[in-house]
Each structure stands twice: as structure tokens, then as C-alpha cells.
Amino acid sequence: MFDTLMSWNDLLFMLKGAGITLAITFWAMLGGTLLGVVFGLIRAVAPWWLNVPLGAVLDVLRSVPLLIQFILGNSLQAILGWQMTPFIIACVVLGLYTASYCTEVVRGGVLAVPATTRRAARSLGLTYRQDLTHIVFPLALRVALPSWIGLTLGVLKDSALVLWIGIVELLRSSQIIITRIQEPLFVLSVAGIIYFAMSFPIARLAARLEKRWHEND
Amino acid sequence: MNYTFHWRSAFQALPEMLQGSIVTIQIAVASMVIGIVIAVLLAVAKTSRFRTLSALASIWIETARNTPALLQIYMAYFGLGSFGIHLNSYMALLAGIAFNNAGYLAETFRGGLRAVPDTQTRAARSLGLGPVQAFRLIVLPQMFRIVFYPMTNQMVWAILMTSLGVIVGLNTDLTGVTQELNARTFRTFEYFALAALIYYVIAKLITTSARLAGWRLFRY
Lengths: 217, 220
Prior knowledge:
The complex is a heterodimer.
Chain A: H1 8-45, H2 48-63, H3 66-80, H4 86-111, H5 115-123, H6 128-158, H7 170-181, H8 184-213
Helix pairs in contact in A: 1-2, 1-4, 1-7, 2-4, 3-4, 4-6, 5-6, 6-8, 7-8
Chain B: H1 7-12, H2 14-46, H3 51-66, H4 69-77, H5 89-115, H6 118-126, H7 131-161, H8 174-185, H9 188-217
Helix pairs in contact in B: 2-3, 2-5, 2-7, 2-8, 2-9, 3-5, 4-5, 5-7, 6-7, 7-9, 8-9
């Protein structure tokens, strides 16, 4: 029962796929976080005429299936004739998707800083920018970081959908192996364990951070 | 740009796509119902004194939360064959999403259960209710009040997850129908843009109606 046709080369192939998964996650998180911080700050401080339309646009990204966003992104670049590789499209689409979630995380963090604290900072003579960098940022980070890590885990898992636009990441590579050796249960379990090994330590870290940062609350 | 958009053909296919979106909603609702029932059991099992029971619940929850939903659907579609269970793509999608929902909701419910004070159970017990009765009539209703909004979020997630059915060959749900039309006409962008619009409307309908229902159900 426990003998398998899967070879070490196959495992190596899957680990390579896992590397692609991590690479896509990294670039999407990098772009998404940068955009998300900018949008989040705008959403926290901007007047309503900027805030409402921005919120509505970002809400669309959260209400449309990611798979369809990938398909639309892929066909749009074909229409525009941009000659981008699927890898870049995957990173861009996933990055925008990440940004829409990250915006809410950042906004929640900034809004969690009490207005009185900020007013106190300003009345002690800090400028608006000093207030942002020395008061709001450290306090908001504590609120936002656990959910940001949760977002990272979500993106890591959602990156599996890029297989539809032709990228061989972890799940697609396991599917290729399944087609050859016909042992779906075993190969998928291995893929699941690799995903688990990638995300479980991060999840633990987030839980520990949350516990440590809130023990004095 | 060397491309002419043909929106008319996409709009002509609208009735077919709306038919597909009914299947989408069906799967999402069914997966939520199954998911909620299992999640309550998992949440209770996780806090149980019996080690094996809580370990099993932990395994389910952590697997559901730490692996992609698509992998779970693959497991149901390809993997269960090893046990002699052969699901068609509809059932595999339903099983995969229900498994996923149960895992996520169990964590939500656990938080909700912790927020219901212990004194409530004790009061109910001292008024003569049995342990199951006290849980069902006193604790559960209060928990559902707390977890109602996270639950609507999960419902929207379930709708979005049904789009993965097309990867295991489902061709009756909204994405499946759209993919069939796409394969026939190669008007990828037009069709999928319309599908995206329909998904958006469905998601908004769910959040709005849930807000109204919550306002109606949970007022004091």
C-alpha cells in the first residue's frame, strides 16, 4: 500500500513549483503592500469625494472571483498586445488583489490610533509628518501586522489559481505528476504538506505576535 | 490596439449565464449549510475534553485553513477515487467548498462561543435544561448573533470559490457556462467581464440582504 511510483525527481519538480508559488507570493505581496499602504493612508485621511470612489473600486477586486480576474488580466494584455509573460500578469493581478485587502488592513490600523493620541502629539509640537512617522506608524503597525500576515497566507494559497493562465506552480506541477503516475491521493497529500509547511509556521508566528503585543492591553 | 469588442454576443448569452448563476448560488448555499452544521460540531469538538476528538477537529481546521481551496477540491475530485468514492465535478466542488467553509467557520464559531459567558450555560442548567438543550436554546442563538457578519463574509467567499469548479470540469455554474461560451466564440474578455459583473451583483446582493436580515433578526 505504501509503495509509490513517485521518484525524488518528481519531488524536486514539485519543490521547484513551490519556489514559483513563493516567488509569485513575494512579488504580489511587495507590490500589493506598497499600493495598500498608499491607498490605506488615503482612505484613512482623505475627504469623502476621494475616499468613496477609491473604496468602491477596491471593493470590486474583492467581490469578483480571483480566477476571473486572472482570465481578464490575461486576455486584456493580449488585446493590448503588451507581450507580457504569464508570470508578470500573475504578479500584477495578484498584486492588485492583495492591494485591495491590504488597504483595509492599513486603514483599520491607522483608524485604530485614537484621535486624542494624535492631537496630544500635535500639541506637544510634532509636525503632521512627525506625528505620522513617530506616533501613528508604530501604533498602527501593532494593530495591522497580524492581519497583514494573515493576508500573506491568503495570497500564498490564492496563488494556486495562476495555474489557469499556464504557470507551473506547486499545484500544477503535482497535477502533471498525477497524470503520469496516477496516484492522485498521494501526490496531492505531498502538495498539501508542502503548502502546510510553507504557511503553518507563518500562522504560528502571527498568533504569537498577536499574543505578545496584546498582553498589556 | 488591434481588437474590436463585440459586446452584443456577450449580452445575447446573458440568459444562459444567469441560468448558470443560479447553479452558482445553489452550490454556495448548500456548501454553507453543510459547512455551518459541521463547523458547530468542530467548534464543540475542538474544546472537548476528549483528546482524540479535539485532535481530529484541529486536523480538519488546520488543513482547511492552511491549504488552497483548489487543492481541497482536487482532493475531492481526484483523491477520493483511491477510496472508491467517485464524485462528479458538481459534488466534488460542493464537497471541497463545504470542507473549506467548515474549517474557517469553526474558528469563527469558536471565538463566538467563547464570547458567550459561561454564566449563561450555568443559569440555563440550573433552570432545569439539559446540557444539549442549554447549548441549543441558550448558547447557539447568542453565538449566531455574534458571528453573523463573519458568516456573511464566508458566504461571499463561498460564491467566489464556486468559480473554481471550472478547473475540475464543471460546465453548469456561472464560470463554467462562461468558459463554454468562450471556447465557442473566443470572445474571452467580453464574456468574462460580464461574468465578473454578475458575480459582483450577486456578492453585493448577499451583503445587502444579510445586513437587512441581520438588522431585522438581531434587534433587541
